[in-house]
Amino acid sequence: MSEHELRVAKIRNGTVIDHVTAGQALNVLAVLGIDGDGGLGVSIGMNVPSDKLGTKDVVKVEGRELSQGEVDIISLLAPEATVNIVREYEVVEKNRVERPARVVGLLSCPNHNCITNADEPVDSAFAVVDDGVRCEYCGEIVREGIGDHLAVD
Amino acid sequence: MRHDNLLSAGQLSREDIEAVLDRAAEVAADPGRVAERQAGRLLALCFFEPSTRTKMSFDTAIKRLGGDTVDMGTVESSSVKKGESLADTVRVIEGYADGIVLRHPSEGAAKLASEFVDVPVVNAGDGAGQHPSQTLLDLYTMRENAGLDDLTVGIMGDLKYGRTVHSLAEALTNFDARMHFVSPESLKLPRGVQFDLHEAGARLREHTDLEAVLPDLDVLYVTRIQRERFPDENEYQQVAGEYRIDADTLDRARDDFTVMHPLPRVDEIAPDVDPTEQAAYFEQAHNGVPVRMALLDELLGGDDGGAGR
Ligand SMILES: [Zn+2]
């Protein structure tokens, strides 16, 4: 087993986000605001064979647990994802993500003419609908490519 | 109507709509009876986009109820030009007036404004979003001319950016109405509106040509296709020409056909339609006053002579 595989396989303390829809790993990192600058140990597996999904992505982050808001957005990008909390190399908690009813302040509206994109003191707000999310201000619906609209700096 | 604001047509139930229309009919029949209803009340007119008729219509409506208006004036001469946020503007204006009528170029502006103030906010047009007070007068006119039951309505023109269309279509889902949407491919109803219509169980069909559905229609609601929606003048001319009606169009429609338009029109309805019995668009514009009187009376509440809300 190479050192690289070993590193992907185990983290000591942190979070493993497994069963991520193939192709969404980098968006998951974007949701977490991880760009490599922060010094966190991060491992990514992309297009890893999966019994359940055919192929999947896996994201492992050393020394970091997720907020509810982050889990909410991940649920939209990767509805099948599981979030595993690891302490001393052991998975101490394993949770399936659940789609929230709405997400506030986490996505930006793709409608450039939406008031939430003007310089106003409000957070964006999206209702989660059957097959996507919907801006509560302008009604714009986002189905594909939710990861392209993350409200991250 | 148990609402603090009128932001979109989707918030209105059939009962809400009928209450306003019934009240508007009473007001129209005897305007003198409500001449003091809103005495002492001030309505702020905040128009961030130029408008003459909607603004005048609200201005007239509140004055005929005994109230008055304060007008923000044009954006060019206001602090908005200096970069003030809408949230700040309405919070200041809230201190001057008992209600705010807002027109703004961005979708969702009225909802945002309503979150920052305690006085009622009426959305008088938010970008390509909604224009629900227009819808109430449209429905009033439709009810007078064709009734709102077992109705077949054609809605033609710019369905993508047409806020009057979005509001009207959503409101019609409360009634026994079949809707035919007629537009060029590039100006079809936006996804968000389609979503609402399907959620509401609307019976609708989309067409690129009026002729096939024309004989079925009780009402045709025509809207303007704006030049700026097209990159190219020739393309605009060609498309706009296909969605124009004239007196010949009426010959191919039912005898009791009604033509409506939110105005202003350019040339999508030929002048030879104006003197016909089918033309209802000037009557429609006039209905704006009693309907907005009824609406403002509902939203501003009581006949306590303006002594607080
Ligand atoms: Zn929006």
Automatic annotation (TrEMBL), chain A:
Its cofactor is Zn(2+). Zn(2+) binds at C109, C114, C135, C138. GO terms for molecular function: metal ion binding; transferase activity. The keyword Zinc applies. Binds 1 zinc ion per subunit. Residues 102-144 form the Aspartate carbamoyltransferase regulatory subunit C-terminal domain. The keyword rRNA-binding does not apply. Involved in allosteric regulation of aspartate carbamoyltransferase. HAMAP family: Asp_carb_tr_reg (MF_00002). NCBIfam families: ATCase_reg. Contains catalytic and regulatory chains. Belongs to the PyrI family. This is Aspartate carbamoyltransferase regulatory chain. It comes from Candidatus Halobonum tyrrellensis G22. The gene is pyrI.
From TrEMBL, chain B:
Its EC number is 2.1.3.2. L-aspartate binds at K82, R163, R224. Carbamoyl phosphate binds at R53, T54, R103, H131, Q134, L263, P264. The keyword ATP-binding does not apply. It catalyses: carbamoyl phosphate + L-aspartate = N-carbamoyl-L-aspartate + phosphate + H(+). The keyword Transferase applies. Pathway: Pyrimidine metabolism; UMP biosynthesis via de novo pathway; (S)-dihydroorotate from bicarbonate: step 2/3. Residues 5-144 form the Aspartate/ornithine carbamoyltransferase carbamoyl-P binding domain. Keywords: Pyrimidine biosynthesis, Transferase. It is an enzyme of class 2 (transferase). One of its GO terms (molecular function) is amino acid binding. Belongs to the aspartate/ornithine carbamoyltransferase superfamily. ATCase family. Catalyzes the condensation of carbamoyl phosphate and aspartate to form carbamoyl aspartate and inorganic phosphate, the committed step in the de novo pyrimidine nucleotide biosynthesis pathway. NCBIfam families: asp_carb_tr, PRK00856.1. This is Aspartate carbamoyltransferase. It comes from Candidatus Halobonum tyrrellensis G22.
